[in-house]
Write a structure and sequence with these properties.
alpha+beta, 9 helices, 11% strand, homodimer, four-stranded mixed beta sheet
């Protein structure tokens, strides 16, 4: 059976970026599913990381250290935290027109832009310029795409996502839920042999 | 230079138990430093895991999975969550009388008791029976030991601990802070070669 990973993330999460750098190298077929983490946090009443000084300070250290581990340039965008609704809609519009691989390639470029001083991914015009697809301006604002993002966000929450990233490893109902980039090694072990 | 790990934990944390199962196998000299996580959570205003249903459900799954990974019997104690103040004081009383290795061995037994239906580690009499040391009944209630636990808890918070476990890897002021059992693999990499 094909091994699969559903990769849930929010574009405004640094750990989503780190997750995107390795999720396709784990030997499984991946489906990227951006969602609006803000909606989940609102429903669960969870505070944002930046609201808790002691965790925020640790996260600042851990994020820099993780960027070094993955050998990527990294800086926080001037517009952080940001609403990722537009870039999410662009992702699903590209996915519907061209499929997952094209959407993943776009998401990878968009995340690189967010976390290494590229174009502003909270801005619709900058997203369109980066994506460089004539159909996208109209496609990303249709009711279908708005509904798709709402449905994806609700599905993510129904599966138990509240943060970013979450990985569902396996197949369908038997998929195993792992939260956070630090689960990388356990996910690898799980793919080799469930325990 | 000797590689060192300061291992901060609260006896009432399942992840502290899992951390205790591997922290001494990472090739570093370890110092175990139990502290009162409740004091840190009170100061930071962080909600306990059990207060957030979506995280609690995930944690329940993750804790069982982690126990299987480390091949240990595991069940939640009937008295969870519990105040770990007495077992912490017993730890430091043993450490002062006999040194770290003896205190670590006691802590390992105490955590095994907590997480595999052993004697009740919130209960002073059960702690004394498990420790089986004539001097302990008096030693664990001295003002010195009470002060020691308060000092250790304040020091843990000053270093940035709010949860369980936290690992400080390296030496003194240059020690690197890692939070959570899932950091095991990064700690191993860090000990091999800082990045």
């Amino acid at each position: 059976m094909t091994k699969t990973i559903d990769f849930y993330f929010d574009f405004s999460s640094p750990y989503a970026y780190f997750g995107s750098l390795f999720v396709n190298d784990l030997g499984a077929e991946t489906t990227w599913r951006p969602y609006l983490m803000g909606a989940a946090m609102k429903q669960t009443g969870l505070p944002a990381l930046v609201e808790i000084p002691i965790k925020r300070d640790y996260a600042a250290l851990d994020i820099k250290r993780t960027a070094r581990l993955y050998e990527v340039d990294f800086s926080m965008p001037s517009y952080f935290p940001f609403m990722s609704v537009k870039v999410c809609r662009a992702f699903y519009a590209i996915e519907e027109a061209e499929g997952q691989p094209a959407a993943q390639a776009f998401a990878a470029e968009a995340m690189k832009a967010v976390w290494s001083k590229g174009p502003n991914m909270s801005d619709g015009e900058a997203i369109l310029a980066l994506a460089d697809r004539p159909y996208l301006a109209e496609a990303m604002v249709t009711q279908d795409i708005k509904d798709r993002l709402r449905t994806e966000t609700e599905a993510a929450m129904a599966r138990g996502c509240w943060g970013s990233p979450h990985f569902f490893v396996g197949e369908g109902d038997t998929a195993e839920h792992f939260w956070g980039c630090d689960k990388r090694w356990q996910i690898q072990q799980w793919l080799e042999a469930r325990w």
